[in-house]
């Protein structure tokens, strides 16, 4: 018998992954959480029916949402991740020798618990002395935050509780929580399947940040396989990758990718023009 996990990514697009075994399923206080082992991408984390991460391609997302902004900041010391309970972003942030504090703000403690148990290679950074975990609502947390160098919004899709992570008021709160050279990065979905969301996010960020940029990465299990990240900066961005980062252990990000990921296809340029 063949068992398949199917995600309805849009009303007209589905992703199907052949499942070898179901490892965990529970309804938390916030969402349905499923962990399964798939034939093609290894272990899979699903929240409310949507793929969050897989062992096979997680490195692309986690490296690109972290190393791009941290490389553009002159000296990132204090970094926060809103969402991202699997710990992958924290793992990558802690590869930067200048980072002194990496804060994870995750509303659902069960996501962290499942990640520690089933995705130890992703969650490994959560046990670092520089990692600080906050089990609370990110929208409220950021209102009290201050003097951060980089804040990363590693959120689920903009439905339900996550809807508030995609509005101009939230980006304004992040602006105020950032220091002098502060940078915001938020995942902003697929230019093929959610172009209007990209425009909405970039417009919202531009209401607070004088510098805005969009960049792309290829993530096979995310809708369409082409993913976008929206960036806002308080000022000028570092143009060259610092020497200590050039040999950083990565699988997708490189200094060359750092430069090229902002070179957008024409149809994406037109979205954000």
What does the model show?
The strands form two sheets. Strands 8-7-6-9-10-12-11 form a seven-stranded mixed sheet, with helices on both faces. A five-stranded antiparallel sheet has the order 1-2-3-4-5, covered by helices on one side. Helix 6 packs across helix 7. The termini are far apart. Helices cover 28% and strands 33% of the residues. The model has no long low-confidence stretch (mean pLDDT 95). Strand 4 and strand 5 (50-54) form a beta hairpin. The chain has helices at residues 58-72, 88-93, 109-118, 120-123, 138-143, 168-177, 195-206, 255-260, 266-272, and strands spanning 3-10, 13-27, 32-38, 42-47, 50-54, 78-83, 101-105, 131-134, 148-154, 178-187, 211-218, 226-233. By secondary structure, the chain is an alpha/beta fold. The longest helix has 15 residues, at 58-72. It has two domains: 3-54, Roll (Spermidine Synthase, Chain: A, domain 2); 58-272, 3-Layer(aba) Sandwich (Rossmann fold), CATH 3.40.50. It has nine helices and twelve strands.
């Amino acid at each position: 018998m063949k068992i398949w996990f199917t995600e309805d990514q849009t009303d007209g697009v589905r992703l199907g992954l052949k499942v070898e075994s179901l490892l965990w399923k529970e309804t938390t206080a916030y969402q349905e959480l499923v962990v399964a082992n798939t034939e093609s991408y290894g272990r899979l984390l699903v929240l409310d029916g949507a793929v969050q991460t897989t062992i096979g391609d997680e490195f692309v997302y986690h490296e690109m949402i972290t190393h791009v902004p941290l490389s553009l900041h002159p000296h990132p010391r204090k970094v926060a991740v809103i969402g991202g309970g699997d710990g992958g972003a924290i793992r990558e942030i802690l590869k930067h020798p200048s980072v002194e504090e990496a804060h994870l703000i995750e509303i659902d403690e069960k996501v962290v618990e499942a990640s520690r148990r089933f995705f130890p290679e992703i969650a490994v950074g959560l046990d670092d002395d520089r990692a600080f975990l906050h089990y609370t609502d990110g929208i409220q947390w950021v209102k009290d935050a201050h003097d951060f160098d980089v804040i990363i919004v590693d959120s689920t899709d903009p439905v339900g509780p996550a809807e508030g992570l995609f509005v101009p008021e939230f980006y304004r709160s992040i602006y105020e929580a950032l220091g002098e050279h502060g940078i915001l990065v938020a995942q902003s979905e697929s230019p093929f399947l959610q172009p209007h969301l990209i425009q909405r996010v970039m417009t919202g960020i531009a209401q607070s940040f004088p510098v805005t940029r969009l960049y792309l990465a290829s993530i096979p299990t995310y809708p369409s396989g082409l993913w976008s990240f929206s960036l806002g900066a308080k000022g000028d961005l570092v143009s060259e990758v610092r020497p200590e980062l050039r040999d950083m252990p990565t699988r997708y990000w490189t200094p060359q990718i750092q430069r090229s990921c902002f070179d957008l296809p024409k149809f994406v340029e037109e979205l954000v023009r």
